[in-house]
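ok posting inputs for the LXD6PMIU job
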Amino acid sequence: MTSTQISPPQAKLWMAAIKPPMYSVAIMPIWVGSAVAFREIKIFNPIIFSLFIAAAILILAWENISNDVFDAETGIDQNKHHSLVNLTGNKTLMFWIGNLCLGLGLLGIIAIAILQKDPTVIAIILLCCCLGYMYQGPPFRLGYQGLGEILCFFAFGPLGMSAAYYSQTQTWSMTNLAASVILGIVTSLVLFCSHFHQVVDDIAAGKKSPIVRLGTHTGAKVLVGFTASIYPLILLFVILNIFPIWTLLSFLSLPFAVKLCRHVLENHNQPDKVSNSKFIAIRVQFVSCLFLGLGFILG
Ligand SMILES: C/C(=C\COP(=O)(O)OP(=O)(O)O)CCC[C@H](C)CCC[C@H](C)CCCC(C)C
Ligand SMILES: O=C(O)C1=CC(=O)c2ccccc2C1=O
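and the output
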């Protein structure tokens, strides 16, 4: 028999390595940025929107593949069976597949710039890629200093969303900037949650993640504070008439936010149980951003 059968655990490892739900973090800034553009300028270019979504997915794939490559160099992923480098046993191949994804993603961004006859979007996305590299690549490795959440906030918040808005309108917007604060926070929450179960490996490899610095109990309380902050912020933007009332639909993510906070408060020091918290955080990010964008379109 020539066909190779993938056993369920192996298939599970591959799914954990590719992390399909994670791509919501790349898609939502473009969805919400384009929704704000539609509300304000009554413009929607589906070709640019589709190009941007595809490019963002490819750029995030590069970020994740190269994360496994760089983490293989520091040894931090030794026990991570779902690292792409550990799964394939070929770091060089993964390095070049990552670079191919980055190249194709940037080609999509260049195509947008050509359609717009304006290089601004290229400049912003290159800046995002620099932040992404500085998170994990030598000599910076700022994620190892606990600075990842700040980089994440700017890449997926103000920068990513300004690029999305500009790609539709070739101008800037204060409303979009306000919405980008929400996206920046809610995306950084996902990264923050990803550290809880890795404290032992992180300390061993010298990575001072925010959870290594704060401890898991304080980390859980910080998580609750930031998760809870997005709802009063949205309400404030509605009261100030910056957001339309329909954006309150994003409160439909509250049950997931409550579930996330409870789960992490109860299990912050139990790696096996808390390891799924980043996927609950992705649900909060997905639902809140989906309805935030919808709120701008309906409003
Ligand atoms: C790769 C990231 C997290 C993985 O971290 P960690 O090493 O702890 O994970 P493992 O345990 O799985 O090894 C995310 C890092 C995000 C980074 C700070 C910013 C990335 C910016 C993107 C490249 C830009 C995308 C912008 C988009 C809107 C086009
Ligand atoms: O693998 C991860 O844990 C993450 C990957 C990723 O691309 C990302 C992007 C934005 C916020 C968080 C994360 C991760 O946690």
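notes: The CA atoms of residues 13 and 82 lie 5 Å apart. The mean pLDDT is 96.
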